[in-house]
Amino acid sequence: MQARPRFRLIPYLIVPLLFLVIVGIALAQPGGGRYTYLAAPVGGPSPTPCVPEPGSWRQGASFPINIIRAWGAWFPANGLFYTLGGRQTDSAGSDILNPYEYDPINDTWTQKSATMPNNNVNNMVGGVLDTPSGPRIYVVGGSPAGGTTATATVKEYDPVADVITEVATDPWPGAGTSVLPGGGAVYNNKLYVLGGFNINVGMVNTIWEFDPMAAAGTRWTLKSATLPTALGYIPATTVGDYIYTAGGSEFSGGTLVDSTAVYRFDPVNDVVDTMTSLPQYTAETRAITMLGGTMWVLGGGRVAPNPSNIVQIYDPGTDTWSSGPAFVTARRNFPADVDPATGAIYLVGGYAPTTPINGMEIYAPGPCPTPIPTDTPLPTDTPVPPTDTPVPTDTAVPTDTPVPTDTPEPPTGVQVSNFSGDSGSSSGLWLLLLLALLPAAWLAYRRITAATK
After folding, report:
1. Angle at which helices 10-28 and 423-452 pack, to 10 degrees?
2. Which residues touch 155 (CB under 8 Å, ≥6 apart)?
3. Residues 6+ positions from 30 with CB-CB distance below 8 Å
4. Going by C-beta distance under 8 Å and a sequence separation of 6 or more, which residues neighbour residue 442?
5. In this structure, how many other beta carbons lie within 10 angstroms of the beta carbon of residue 153?
6. pLDDT tens digits, residue range 192-249?
């Protein structure tokens, strides 16, 4: 009669043991653990370059005075647009010796305090270069209003400190006493001067390289490559690993005539290639690099029907031309540049068509479309179901398999991990479960020993 109480105690052992087995099985299932945050994937396909939708031109604040033949530069360090040099008219003494600063947020112009060291400030070319002291705007060469001589002066402008410094150790060797630089473009932090105009004599075809990081007195290098056609007043810009020129002025019969010549200069291999010609003749204007890696040539030209307001767009990838959104006022010899981060273009002044003006126009590109990844082709062997195929109504959803409502989906950027793969977490939990079962086991042991006494 003493043995029967032992069997009454079996539930005290079975229930904890069943609980232990069930929990163990649950933990062993995929997804039976906890949420762990994982870092975003690194690598993957390169982002598709933004080719923005067509935008539009709008009027900006007028320049305080008429301005022609100035150099325009966007300065990324402070997000402002600058004009350097130029003149108000073609009369001697009308040179503009102070830089002007345009603030695109407030739509305002400010005359700066810095002053050019001389009045050879017309028809310069330049670019933004990094120096040991920070980024600077460099301009090369130039001539005075109404003059027939040119300077070799290289000028450095610090927009932040508002200081202009002449780089006296390194004048441009290609200037002589009467050669104006033809076109300018920056590649790999070096300024390239392409071609030029020997005033009232003819054009030149040389290419010069200026390195601001080289030792004083050694910053200029004459390249071996030359332009196939001698040109001046050349629209030029850098796209990728090449400098492209589009149009420019030839000298024929003692007058300037527009060109359609397009060249690609490889600064690394020092080679010039001829590309597809411009659809329309142009010169005496700027070319800029737009988002997505195309060259935009902005109006320009002097031989009727020029100057124009059309925008000619060149795609280096296909060596083809297309038309872009035209600005309002046809003009030439105006300062202009682009904000490379947004694709906004700023142009101001110029001859329209032969009279100096002060009007400003600003181009705002459209939004970037959402590209389809080029490295993930859409499946071609899975046809889209026809839209007239009805959804079966006689296939009921099983009612004996309820969808859990108390198990939230993992948040975005989260992946479920299995406790069985985390030895530290698994061991700790098993230890806690064993400790929780000790009281029940102890109670069962006491009941068994009491019953056997």
Report:
1. 170
2. 84, 116, 117, 124, 138, 139, 140, 164, 165, 166, 167
3. 416, 418
4. none
5. 21
6. 999 999 999 999 999 999 999 999 999 999 999 999 999 999 999 999 999 999 999 9
* Residues forming beta bridges with residue 272, ordered by sequence position: 265
Q: What is the pTM of this model?
A: 0.72
Q: What is the 3-state secondary structure (H, E, C) of 402-448?
A: CCCCCCCCCCCCEEEECHHHCHHHHHHHHHHHHHHHHHHHHHHHHHH
Residue 294 makes CB contacts below 8 A (sequence gap 6+) with 51, 239, 313, 314, 315, 316
Omega before 353 within 30 of 0, i.e. cis: yes
The two tokens of residue 74 are: 């966007």
Q: What is the DSSP letter of 216?
A: T
Question: Which structure tokens are listed for 211?
Answer: 């390195």
Neighbours of 403 (CB within 10 A): 6
Q: Which residue has the tokens 């069943």?
A: 18
The predicted-structure confidence for 109-161, as pLDDT tens digits, reads as follows 999 999 999 999 999 999 999 999 999 999 999 999 999 999 999 999 999 99
Task: Report the 10 Å Cβ neighbour count for 224.
Answer: 9
In this structure, which amino acid lies at residue 83?
Answer: T
Contact of 100 with 113, CB cutoff 8 Å: no
* AA letter at 448: I
Distance separating alpha carbons of residues 182 and 286, to the nearest angstrom: 11
